[in-house]
Amino acid sequence: MQCAECGGEFEKKIITYDQLWGDKEFYLFEGAPALVCSHAAQYIWKAKFLRL
Fold it and tell me: What are the boundaries of each domain within the chain?
């Protein structure tokens, strides 16, 4: 699969991702399966991971 932003290839990786929501809430996702672009900072979450 190619990245729409740069045309690079996506690779399967296990990543750590942090996200600030609002002014005070900070979330850290460790061991998150994602497709990550080899050039741009784009990623696609696996649907199974997004289900809480």
Answer: 10-50
